[in-house]
Amino acid sequence: MRLSRYFLPTLRETPREAEIVSHRLMLRAGMVRQQSAGIFSWLPLGLRVLNKINAIIREEQNRAGAAEILMPTIQSAELWRESGRYEAYGKEMLRIRDRHERDMLFGPTNEEMVTDIFRTYVRSYKDLPLNLYHIQWKFRDEIRPRFGTMRSREFLMKDAYSFDIDKDSARHAYNRMFVAYLRTFARMGLQAIPMQADTGPIGGDLSHEFIILASTGESEVFCDKAYLGFETPAENTDFEDRAGLQATVDAWTARYAATSEKHDEAAFAAIPDADKLSARGIEVGHIFYFGTKYSDPMKAVVTGPDGKEHPVHMGSYGIGPSRLVPAIIEASHDEAGVIWPDAIAPFHVALLNLKPGDSATDAACEKLYAELGAAGYDVLYDDREERPGAKFANADLIGLPWQVIVGPKSLADGKVEMKRRATGERELVALDDCLARLKA
RNA sequence: CGGGGCGUAGCGCAGCCUGGUAGCGCAUCUGCUUUGGGAGCAGAGGGUCGCAGGUUCAAAUCCUGCCGCCCCGACCA
Fold first, then answer.
1. Contacts of A26 (CB under 8 A, 6+ apart)
2. Cβ of residue A151 near strand B, that is under 7 Å?
């Protein structure tokens, strides 16, 4: 993409409303525009990141055996009356009415709807297990939205719903998502720690919040430092291996980790001081098992091997992509701007032509732009008539992993400069070696 | 919803107290000079001063009501 033809409205100054660093940088890097309290437009650069995040989520959900669907944002109140949540949900739910005066709502979550889909089609235990997920916009009319897309009213959520014949199978479904989540966050360059979470009225131990540590996080968290060195489950993990998955989950839940709501001072005190970690964190995922809470009232039942009807055991599993964007920025930035992890960077390379109009730098940039693009790299080519300083500052701000700097000085020796955004390291490489260096 | 703050050019702000021609910086446009870390000079464009009433000869400024946004708290992916 040529920057001269792109839409990247970066800001030199920070808009007043932005308090935390990720919000400031998302506005300055031209990623989002707030349209109303807690409601945002996603501009090209921000949308690219969001889509990268979604792509990773999809790959890992699919790998773990979930099937993608897409349910609507607008739902009928009918289903919610069936589950009893239409009355229970309160003001957080945006209630609307259509022209026929029917009660509708903008979905804050989809348990009812997915349960309705399930009960329509699935009758036999032989069709289980089943896990359906979608990535869709949700709306929760938060009392106070804040921190940009970190806590917005309209937000994107990946929500998966599992259906199983009994609790044991449901635990396996839970473990599949648990492991998928560990892989998902690790691929985004995040160290996510599963922490004990509130299970609400359902109870039990099957609920975890996935937390990443960040000084500006909203939650106070306490855990064993050992988690920071844990190994991510492998790509070839066998998700049908019940015992194997259980062992992985057991290992990841053996040590202490809890948010302030579930914090147990005594248990925390038992950890050696050197291993205690008390910090702030951002919740990026939440999984839980809720049994027959919806299948009972909504009559989602299957016939079991015994010939009798059984309400299905369900769980739901959420990840907030539109929250992950700022979460990743909170975890990865410096004074100058964002530092995107390679896997979710909106482009791989910023190609800076320091002297557009100079036949040598123009030719070198065109060659690199074509060559890197052909090799599968997304290149943002800064071909604007701007001074070098402005290009450097802009490139650092938007935080692409690599900067390939083409200026007359180094080009006189047939070289270009390659700068790694994360470390600031620069090296001069021959024009023809640029691609090889990227691959290395 | 309680407490606090703010709405003046795309962004950041001054002006308001003490009513009298709407300003500054950045950005934008034109020209010239510059060209390896957000250039210099000269010129130009851009405003329902959040909205609606009121007071006054006269309101960005004073009064009343409303709307929007931000921050702190209780609540949430």
1. A32, A46, A148, A149, A325, A326, A329
2. yes
pLDDT band at A203; cut points 50, 70, 90: low
* Nucleotide nearest A320, from its CA to each C1': B77
What is residue A387's predicted lDDT score, i.e. its pLDDT? 95
**Can you give the pTM of this predicted structure?**
0.96
CB-strand contact A320/B, under 7 Å: yes
CB A166 within 8 A of CB A137: no
CA distance readout (Å), A178 to A50, A182, A251, A320, A412: 22, 6, 12, 15, 54
Checking each nucleotide's C1' against the CA of A417, the nearest proves to be B36
Q: Verify if strand B has an atom below 7 Å from the CB of A411.
A: yes
Q: What is the DSSP string of A101-147?
A: --EEEE-S--HHHHHHHHHHH--BGGG-SEEEEEEEEEE---SS-BT
Instruction: Tell me what pLDDT residue A242 has.
Output: 97
Q: Which nucleotides of B are covered by protein (CB under 7 A)?
A: 1-2, 6, 11-13, 25-27, 34-39, 68-77
> Which range (A203-212, A226-235, A267-276) has the least confidence?
A203-212
